[in-house]
């Protein structure tokens, strides 16, 4: 019998619509697998009771189809509100918070018909690329349970890799869709800023470094979920129109021009073997007729880092400042969040302005680079999945990391410019650990990047070729 949990979300959707199996059978298959494997992984938190989920599955079988996710189990990242479910943000401050209403992302998901089964684990407030927190504990890597799954969308990535989920949402400020995708051998897509609007509450003009996006085991599922969550909202000032991303994915990529940025001229420390593995993966693009060539760094890594540090601290001081101002709540914040807020509170107007100028210069530089290249490539992570009992890597290849997030620096160039960025699996290192790379293009080129990624996926299918051996007792 076909293992339903191993099928892509697009296939599940079509077969459910054809009544080849029921939503009850699908829910049972996923819940059985979650029951068997999630205690090892801790990818899904706040799982709803089986009886309630099966009742919703029976109702889905009896109801008209609402959308392509109709009847498919779905767990939402634990930074996003789903009405009636707990949103703890991994923080003891919100350990008992039950969301009164859906966030916009969930409103769009709900219209497509999924059954919300629970949440996916994250770091506290999504801070840092290692999914551990004092409320829900640590998420483990399906390829080695002693290692991290990354973050902040670590629960989503681990759940996808282990076949606990067919498709998942995530979010990304500093690689939170890309780093866990690399660590777990799946795909993550950071859309052009504004394509997936956030809110509708909170500040909408100044902070342009974070976005929601999709994760999946193949690019077609990724594109379909993007279609579901993307598109303008009149309350969001940076909205962009959506496109039919899942249509006409199969295109000839011969002649596509791809620039490989490597370690940014030595500015980015990489653990041994990562660059070589990515270069081998890029050979698949060459096999498909694309032109891949090494590219010198187009900007100062130090200048980009300084701008990023300023704008990130500015955003964290704004969004979490009220928690810091309350001594009782401040005592419950992780040290890294306190550090971020204090960095932000110490900023001058001149420094914030200069960071925005640097960011603007970088955007203009990229506009020129993209007249010569269709896409650029960087590593999606600088280290192999590290031990789950670490807070963060303090050293890479003998180079000390001076902040808790310096080891994630390769994600900054596309994040700072708000560019569409696809994390693709690159294969596995000698220890059997996954790694990935980023493929990014100009603002608004989301569909073009997904098409390049789809061609690569069809030539490799690392998630299907090397699923984790959890069933063998790992």
Task: Describe what you observe in this structure.
With 474 residues, the chain is α+β, with helices and mostly antiparallel strands. It has one domain (4-472): Amidase signature (AS) enzymes, CATH 3.90.1300.10. Helix content is 37%, strand content 15%. It has helices at residues 9-17, 23-41, 50-62, 104-111, 154-161, 179-184, 219-229, 274-287, 301-325, 327-330, 335-345, 349-369, 412-417, 446-460, 462-465; strands at 44-45, 73-77, 115-120, 132-133, 137-138, 140-141, 144-148, 167-172, 187-190, 211-216, 257-260, 291-294, 375-379, 395-396, 399-400, 421-428, 434-440. The strands form 5 sheets. The chain has an 8-stranded mixed sheet with strand order 8-10-9-16-17-13-11-12, with helices on both faces. A 3-stranded mixed sheet has the order 1-3-2. A two-stranded antiparallel sheet has the order 4-5. Helix 9 (301-325) packs across helix 11. The chain is globular, with a radius of gyration of 21 Å. The two termini are 24 Å apart.
